[in-house]
Amino acid sequence: MVTPVTRRYTRIAALWIGLASLPIHAMELPPPAYQIAANDAGVPSTVLFAVALQESGARFHGHLIPWPWTLDIAGVPYRYATAAQACGALRIALRQWPATRLDVGLGQVNLGYQAQRYREPCELLDPYRNLAIAATILREQHNPGEDWLIAVGRYHRPAGGTVAAYYRRRVRQHLVRVLGLSLSTAMP
Known about the structure:
Number of strands: 6
Helix content: 40-55%
Distance between the termini: 51 Å
């Protein structure tokens, strides 16, 4: 015999089965270091994490993760197993290239354009220090009421243009994944 209670449970079960068949996109919570640096600078931690994924992301066991000992030397990325190895390579690179051609760490902080933010280049290989600087730069590039992706473009290229637009699109893809959205439902 079908009663109102049975019908109600049948509807609830059908709803749950329907919901269970939908693709689930779980939010990927940024690690604590990103949350701390972002909070201190007043930046969304998901945006900072997405920037780091774009800047220093490396595949590790099938997952893209920001790699703290990444150097970009004249447009070519290099990843090192330890901070000491990266520091040694950075010291050599500084003898061969102008500081403006060298980006360091999780946020790929440029040694030349950001020289006022550090005392010694190898300190940028400290993940916490690097994230604090990256978050501060990102905050400085953001105007009140503006979409954070605009600031992300200026983080990479303050002059804007097609290079900044391309970079925004790449970071947006990471941000969509971090936020657990599909591209069709994500922000423009």
